[in-house]
Each structure stands twice: as C-alpha cells, then as structure tokens.
Amino acid sequence: MDATVILILAQDGLLNGAIYALLGLALVMVFAVTRIIFIPQGEFVTYGALTLAFIINNRTPGTLWLLLFVGLAAAAQDIYAIVKRAPEHKLRRILLVLAGSVGWPLLLIAVSPWLLNKDQPLFVSVLYALAIVIPLGPMLYKLVYQRLAEASVLVLLITSVALHFALTGLGLVFFGAEGWRTPAFMRGQIDILGMMWSAQTVFVLVACAVLIGALWLFFGATLYGRALRATAVNRRGARLVGISTEMSGRLTFLLAAAVGAFSGMLIAPVTTIYYDTGFLIGLKGFVGAIIGGLASYPITAIGAIFVGILEAFSSFWASQYKEVIVFTLIIPVLLWRSLGMQIMDDEED
Length: 349
What we know:
single chain, mainly alpha, two-stranded antiparallel sheet, 2 strands, globular
C-alpha cells in the first residue's frame, strides 16, 4: 500500500464518514428529545436519493403520493382532535390543518407536470425532492409515535422496527428493485495542499460541515432549538415551563428527515442506491451514535468519521468482511460503556 492508495482510501473514508456523522447526529437528536431509537432514519436516506433520481429522470416519484396519503391521515387525526376537544375557533383550526397537511402535497402535485417534463437545474430538483420527503418526518411522528410518547423505550423500539419494514416495503413498491444514481454536484479534481481531491468529495465534506454548523447554531441561538435542548434534558420540566413535547417531537423528526434526505442526495452520485440501501447506511451512523453513547454530539461525529475510515481501509484489506469489522466495533464500545453505567429509571425527571 503506497501513499496514493492511502490517500484514495482516506478520501473515501472521510466521504462516507461525513454522511455517517450526519445520520449519527440525527439519531442522537431524536433519541435525546423523544427517547426513540429511530431505525427508519435510513429510509429517509433512500427516499431522498431515489426521489431525486426519479425527478431527474422525469418520472413521478411514489413518495409524492405517499406524502398526500400520510397528509390526509394526519389531517384526519388532527381534525378529530379539534372537533372533540377544541372549545372555539374550530373552523379556523381545521382550515390551518388542511392547508398544512393536505394543501402542501396538493401544491407539489400541481407543479409536478412543469418540473418533471423539463430539464431543470439540479438544485431545483434537489429542492423539489426535499419538499416532498422532509414533511414525511413530522407527519409520521404524528401518526405513529405521538400517542406512544410516554411508552417505554422498548415499545418505541418495536414501533420503529415495524415502521422500518413498512417504509422499506413501500420503497420497493415506489422505486422498484433496480439501483439508481444521480449526477454529481461537482465534477473534476481539486488540488488541496499538493493533494488531488475529487470535487464531489470536497463538496460533500463542505456541505456536511455547513449542515452541522447550521444545526449547532439552531440549537444554540434559536428559541425552538433551546426548547428542544430543554426537552432533551428533562421532558417533565419542559412541560412544566410550557414547552410542548408534541411540538418538540414533530420538530425533531422534521430535522431528522431533512438530514436523512439530504444525506441520501449527497451520497447518491458516488453509490448506487437501492430501495433498501438506506438501512445499512443508517446502521453505520447508528454505530457512531453508539460510540457517542446516544448522548454526545462531538463524540458521535468523531466516531462516525472513524467508522467511515475503518470501512474504507477494511474494504481494501478484507472486502468480504468489511461489514463484519465495522459492526464488530460496537462490542468493545458497549463493554467499555457498561463498566461505568449506573442503573437508572427509564426517564430521569
């Protein structure tokens, strides 16, 4: 192995590690705020990448109709609650619910003939795909998890497994069994400190750094970000000071869906994405989250990057066992963390 091979493997490892870091941070965020181990995080990677691929190829993505169906179900649930409990302004609240849950999908369907029948700039297709996939996050939280907000972590985990299988099956129906790739955001090579880097790799690393920085600013400098941090620290205390845990859950799933969908779009130009690819990518982000103890954002990011580099070098030395090597990393981490773990209640108030 010479320096050139090491550089190529390091670039590949950093590229994958940056994606795993984003997914790991999203998993830690969801678990901290809602106590949900969000296994379907990988499905948002798949849906984001394949929705973009279908749009670029002038095909209507099935996620567009899924968004409408889920929106109708979410609207029906909200309208039932309004009619049953709201003392006043029922009509106004119902109209707001319909505008958000049903009006948005209908608007996206209305503009789809214009966007799908012409060659649009790549960034327009990316924005349209994000507009389709991201709203699925809070809608799924409302339909699947909101009523189980006070359930045990085990019940929430079983629910996540069930939702994962449902979304994977829908992915097969919507996108088929064949794999897809999307055009690169940037082409060519860039010379950095005397080393040649793929322009796509540099773009992904910069985009991931910008997104992580944006999340840091959101949690540190905005009211909603601080509300999520308060909910993560103490759910009951957050409720006592007027922070809605339902709002916190929906906002957290919105951010998780955005991170997952955008991560899929970043990796789609360099990896063929199938309907079930996101699950494996999400699991590697979960390894990074485990390294961070499902609590520490910096350690999660560092651990996920290490996972990407380990995977890259393992694929060179023992490509048949690279997945085994990566997931075996969980065992010593869990053993190390179990040594200092104290027995605690399911939720510390």
